[in-house]
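Regression check, FE2/S2 (inorganic) cluster case 410:
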Amino acid sequence: MIPVAQNEMLTRVGPGTPAGEMFRRYWLPVGISGELRAATQKVRMLGEDLVLFRDEFGRPGLLARDCSHRSTSLEYGRIEGGGIRCPYHGWLYDIRGDCLDMPGEPKDSKFKDRVKHTAYPCREIGGLVFAYMGLGEPPLLPTFEILVSDSFTRRASMDWPVHPCNWLQLVENDQDPVHASVLHNDSSFSQNSLFPTMATRIDFEETEAGVMYTAYRPGPEPGTTYVRRVNSLMPGILAFGPGRSPDHHDDPEFGGSLRWRVPVDDTTTKMFSVYATPRKYQSDRTAKASDMGGIFVKRDIINESLAGKYWIAERNADGKFILDETWKQDYVAIVSQGAITDRSREKLGTSDRGIVQLRKMYMEAIKAVQEGRDPKGVMRDPAKASMVRLPRTNQVGRTEDELVVSYAQF
Ligand code: FES
Ligand SMILES: [Fe+2]
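Current build output:
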């Protein structure tokens, strides 16, 4: 357990809160590149209401939603004149938040030069739009190999459902290898047949940008060992390295994935993912994705969700969720802990070491920001931030040599 005050410190993400300021020191995904065209998008991030758009020059911009003049929503603005024009009185803002035009003011007025609208810088990589919402000079946006290398095709998506709970519950689930053997032991994903066996050994280690567990289980053949490594990177990122994965059974070969958990506010969490497939293994489906510029958005899922069919809402006659797939099992376990779970009443065992380590890491990151230092995982050295590779996630082998981590920069 942790005291109530520490739980508050770790979970609140609005402007000025300790965890909120910590999150604002990283580039965070805010949208899908392929979906950012003519229309503006209403976005809520870290408790702030914002508008994401692409200007006539193709540049992404993220501005405060409410117009600086009299608070009409820029969601209804027009993209023109080098920025976004408020629909009410026509104030025109560019991606830096500079006001370029005030049609109602005298021609020689300098008033517009004194208005600075809240604007956050954006960058695009791997099919996602990232924003930096913090103070000071933005750090480097780490260019993971799977986000930029021509050796992969990629699918960038915003994953549904949005979780109606705090971000830390999703992240803690990642460093909890025991749950895989219990919660997922009747998953319809046949590959998960390896999970019902409780791990015989679990190691947790700190890495340069996060924490990682390694779980050892008996392999499918006598004499083999199944090793699963799961990497949690700052901030809120679940990273899977290359290798065929039980979680991605429909890919002919898995190149790796990154999944960002982005706090919408204290009690809502969004997920953005990039899944990579080595080009040499790509199927017709992923080849088609690469024809679309390497971006594959799960439109069917998003549309279904937007149509009001809450896609997790399959319940039995008693009104309980049917936990027949891995992601539904995780969703229900995490969301049913509460909007912000009360960690002061929990009882942690030895298998919760990863959870303890995660909380320690985030508390240290919060402290670093409070002391004016960069938190863990913030990159300013171009050599470190480029072509970042991930260790293999799933391996089956007979000997230690076969199971050695092939490479691990993080
Ligand atoms: S409210 Fe936006 S220009 Fe007046
Ligand atoms: Fe899980």
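Comparison notes: The radius of gyration is 22 Å. Residues 66 and 73 are 5 Å apart (CA to CA). No diff flagged against the previous build.
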